[in-house]
Amino acid sequence: MKTLVELFDECQIENVIASLHYTPKKLVFVGYKHIMTEERKASIERFFKMRGINAKTEYVVVGRYD
Length: 66
Prior knowledge:
Elements: E1 3-7, H1 12-22, E2 26-31, H2 38-51, E3 56-61
Parallel strand pairs: 1-2, 2-3
């Protein structure tokens, strides 16, 4: 299984570029809680669904100094 670990960025395009290139089976986004809002997560999920990318996504919240 191909897994891609991505830093969750405020700029949504930065969150999907590598996924479009590598087409992983699983995506793990790592980021701050105030940036990884439910709205942004849902937006990424919709984008992948529209593109036919069936990757399982996981979101990991980290603290500032973790």
